[in-house]
Amino acid sequence: MASIDIAQLANEISRQLELYAEAVDEDINVAAKKVSKEGEVKLKQISPEGARGEYATGWTIKKQGKNYILWNQEHYQLTHLLENGHVTRDGGRTQAQPHIKPVEKKMIKDFEMEVIKAVEG
Fold first, then answer.
1. pTM for this structure?
2. Which DSSP string do the residues of 3-66 spell out, in sequence order?
3. Pair 109, 98: CB distance under 8 Å
4. Which residues contact 24 (CB under 8 A, 6 or more apart)?
5. How many alpha carbons fall within 13 Å on the CB side of residue 20?
6. How far apart are CA 114 and CA 111, in angstroms?
7. Residue 44: what pLDDT?
8. How far is CA 103 from CA 24, 31, 56, 69, 108, in A?
9. Are 40 and 104 in contact (CB under 8 A)?
10. If residue 70 lies in a helix (H) or strand (E), which one and from where to where?
């Protein structure tokens, strides 16, 4: 049986933990990109149509640091109005058309599952 110095053991454990952390970080980044793309596709499918039918085509992903941001690049002003409804010029109120919140909930659930898979290896 071979013996090992405790300092060498500590260094090897530290090195292995760093390798594991890098692998998990990479897997999480891949998962974030995948879930974001799926969310973009889903929002393009279920976004409200109407007078401004091009609203659905405006969904896109941008990366800021390690974060992926899913947003409507062309019609960002409409997201809140369509999602929650709004008051019209004549004092009436439009009906809310929730389309972002359901996709957000699914993306969160999917991302959590992907992170669990990445951590468990």
1. 0.85
2. ---HHHHHHHHHHHHHHHHHHHHHHHHHHHHHHHHHHHHHHHHHS--STTGGGGGGEEEEEETT
3. no
4. 118, 119
5. 9
6. 5
7. 93
8. 25, 16, 14, 13, 9
9. no
10. strand 67-72
Distance CA 101, CA 15 (A): 42
Length of the chain: 121
Q: Are 76 and 47 in contact (CB under 8 A)?
A: no
CA distances from residue 38 to 31, 64, 66, 76, 102 in whole angstroms, order as listed: 11, 18, 18, 19, 13
What is the signed CA dihedral for 75, 47, 99, 102, rounded to 10 degrees?
-120
Distance (Å) of CA 114 to CA 57, 75, 119: 27, 30, 9
Contact predicate 54/75, CB 8 Å: yes
Residues 68-96 have pLDDT tens digits of 999 999 999 999 999 999 999 999 999 99
